[in-house]
Amino acid sequence: MSVEVRFLGTGDAFASGGRSHACILVTAPEGRILLDCGGSSLPAIVRACDPGTIDAVAVTHLHGDHFGGLPYLVLQQKYAPRRRPLLVGGPPSLEARYLEAMKGLYADFFHSPSPFEVKWTILRPTPVRLGPAQVSAHSVEHVPASEPHGLRVRIGGKLIGYSGDARWGPALPLLADGADLFICETTTYSVPDPVHISAKELSAHRDELRCERLVVTHLGTDSLANIASLGLEHADDGMTIAL
Ligand SMILES: [Zn+2]
Question: pTM for the full model?
């Protein structure tokens, strides 16, 4: 079995074009890991698999379109019921921010014991084991308050790089270096944005990305209006890649 990458959500924070928030399901012989779990992810997850088969979730940064689906996933798993831990890795403040979100959305969640534990890991540049994968996180240039990171994920003998949300910067070639697949955001096509990269900028830097395959995601209105001229392979919700 090869490694399967399924794009469950390829939209920006505004769900442009009706696309779901950021969520990528990676399945390998060792298990399953989600890369990001944005606010609208649970319906897409349920359509794709039994959520109980997800071993781990790796979160890039603390914006709702990237981690806002975690409370819904954990709630769904409480009543599934799940019996084994769910491993969640991400920026330093992820656990605290998740707890705030869960308390706001389902205060009663904490009124009865959960049949499983969420185990938290802070992801850093040194790779750590997160369920079926070795994962490292690297700072990228985005809204600082969101503790923005990109990820490098080794799983099933393959290497996947993922930008999270980022403007162009030296972190992106490092995230892509040697990857079988580099997943990069292109929120805009050509409109400059202080915290996101455009397809035109990414194309201009394509030679600096030493990856086998580049797929763009996190598509906003400007990217979608110019989808035929992006000049880059783009993901759609539900698209699956075998590595
Ligand atoms: Zn985003």
Answer: 0.98
